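new request in #modeling-help
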Amino acid sequence: MPGSLTTDIAGGRGAPPSTPGFGDGDSGGRGASRRASFTGLLVLLAASIMMFAAFTSAFFVRRGLSDDWVSTPMPRVLWLNTSVLLVSSAVIEMARRVLRSGHRVAFNRLWTAGTILGALFLCGQYLAWRELNAQGFYLATNPSSSFFFLLTCVHAIHLLGGITALGYVDVQALRLRLGPGKRTAVDVSAAFWHFLDAVWIFLMLLFVFWG
Amino acid sequence: MSSSIVHAAHQAPTGFIRRYIFSLDHKVIGIQYYFLALFSVFLGMGLSVLMRYHMVYPDAKVSWFEKLWPTGAAGGIMTPELYLSLMTMHGTIMVFFVLTTAPQSGFGNYFLPIQIGAEDMAFPVLNMLSFWTTFLALCVMVAAFFVPGGAPLAGWTVYPPLSAVGPLAGPGEGLGQSLWIISIAIFSGASLMGAINFIATTIDLRAKGMTMMRLPLTCWAWLVTAILGLLGFAVLLAAGILLLLDRMAETSFFIPAGLVVSDQILNHKGGSPLLWQHLFWFFGHPEVYIAILPGMGVASQLLSTFARKPVFGYRAMVYAILSIGFLGFFVWGHHMFMSGMSPYSAMAFATLTMAIGVPSAIKTFNWIGTLWGGRIRFTSAMMFAMGFVSLFVTGGISGIFLGQPALDLYFHDTYFVVGHFHMIMGVAAIFGMFAGTFYWFPKVTGRLMNETLGKIHFYLTFIGVYCIFTPMHWLGIAGNPRRYADFTNFDFMGKLMPVHTFMTWAAIITASAQLIFLFNLFWSMKKGAVATDNPWDATTLEWGIPSPPPFDNFAGHHPVVNHGPYEYGVPGGAKDYLMQSDPP
């Protein structure tokens, strides 16, 4: 029986039975646990997509409602942030691939770099918020800025979760505890990280064309 | 069970806190959810009795009202605002903490892993967190009673602007309303965690041979309910965040320009209350199915078991559940026919709403088909399952009326709607829970509930709820408005008041009858007749293990499934059924 949240996803369910998978309806063992982790991730992503879809639909409804919509200027640092996040995702993906071919040292370096880039993105977002505040745009200034702050904040909260997952894997890797059972954690957190990339690109498009 | 595989059994935790409080065992978590819902249902029912009492005797002075609500019931007489706050809390507690909690998180947590042959849920820690988050949400919700201004009064649908403009709008619209939104946001998070667990468990942890088309219908219902919860609560969470920002951060998502409240012009501009209605009902309509689908699963399971016949049209039942779940996301507009919606949109929503009648009718006919020619065993569990079918039909038929825009314009703000949703979403779902309780009690405790008390409770409740809610339809047709605290000042209501009096006394008697159930539940835990492992001669996997089940459900074995879930009435053997794990 797992003892903590991280072991649910990262560690799998105790000792695996010494039987190969059964095909449909095989319960127990690491195979099932790994599949369940991916299913859990997909389900989580579905919920997250629904939430952003709800905000986006509110965005367009509110935008079409009245004449108080004043476009929010895009802070320049956002473009830098975007590239930092994309690079971070690419680095994480490279790390995942070198781990598959057994290069643990390279994995540790790349994964750590990807995690740090993710944290840098968050700092960059903070700078963007400060820049907008300096120009007089706050959460309640007008609906456009309301949605800008809201969506970037919700994305940042998701990102904090992502960084926690990446950081957990990183600590395990640096402490040489990244056994085969934790490969699921590597794959799941990387997939979540790429998802946050996609959401961010979507948000950028939203702000650039309609914000 | 020669083909099953023996594992080293997991160790059960020994400390009290790990075992009963912060337990990771899905069975303990299921029981925790059940008791949370049991507490909530009695709280919600108590509020409804107070409301019914006030409606009929608005001038009666009740001294303990004043003790409970010194401002809301000064002098022992309830103010209309207090009435509205009781209504809001009744609806909220019942919908979220009873109808969403017990059938899915309670029964589902306990029996989904056992019925599919798994040792536990896929993510036990997430499961534990999900329960304690729900508990936190309930605490925050109940706290709204005790803050200055008291509980909110915007109804369980919390329509802005009333819910968005703050204490200016009335007592309870200050901190009480904020706590409401925060509680529901926390609850949404808990529901999302639960949904992740239910879906991953059903898809990935089924035992060998447990194909999707061998799943008991209860598991199908829990799976589809989890999907609805996943998609619905994510949207409710988003909407709640927007509403909270309107209240606390001066944004204008939902508050229109130039709004005058209590002779003050508000600063907000340009928002739309209708936006909230769309977001809310996109969650709100699937929520109705979240409440009723698990009950449908339980009814199918029980009707088949106690009629000793396979479920009539198993595949049709599965596809009906799936299509009800799917269509449920396209009909939210039928809650908003009154909002000035374009008649073309209204027609689309009405047509889709009618379309849900088809899978619902398939289910109903298949239930009747299951009973047809069966050798019915009239246990209390079976009576409640048949009561569920009756209430589902009654409540569903009035839904067909309300799905018509032209009729809804008349009925919308009347008691017809109150009667409709209480029948189908309230008492039908609760009958599903009663049925489940009587059916699974011997598995959970190893003892049977008392049948005599069960039948007395059934008849009082069944007749009672019809006495309470059937007249509401008639009152609605007569034009009786809903959400009013007091009808005594309206001339046209004079002739209807005796009906209200009748309903109030029916409510008081029916509510009292629930004490029989409560007594039966606790008494039977200690003194009930000892049950065998399979007292109902049922087929699904939970009946093949000891009662109560061991810590990891199958004591180290992995069951292998060779049969469908409802193989009853099998000729030629010593017993008339095949367990799912029986040899082929």
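bot summary: The first strand of chain B starts at residue 5 and ends at 6.
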